[in-house]
Amino acid sequence: MEDYAERIVDKALKLGCQDAVADVIGNRSYQIRFAQNQVVISNQWRETSASVFLVYNKRVIASEIKDLTKLDAAVENLVKIAKASRENPDYAGLAEGPFKYDRLTVDKRIVDLMDGSDFVEAAIHGATAEGAKECAGSFWKYDEEHSLRTSNGVKGYDHRASLYLSIRALMSLESSGHGVACATRMSQFDPEKAGHKAGKIAALAKDPVGGEAGTYDIVFDPLILGSLIDQIGGRSSAYIVMAGLSPFAKKIGKLVASKIVTITDDGSADSMGRQRFDAEGVPTKKKFIVRNGVLKTYLHNTSTAKKFKAKTTANAGLIAPWPHALSCKPGNWTRDEIFEECRDGLWLTNTWYTRYQSYVTGDFSTIPRDGIFRIKDGEIVGVWKDIRLTDNLLHVWKSIVGLSKTVDQVNWWGEVSVPTFAPYALARKIRITRSAE
Question: What is the per-residue DSSP string for 191-237?
Answer without folding.
Answer: HHHHHHHHHHHHHHT-S-EE---EEEEEEE-HHHHHHHHHHHHHHTB
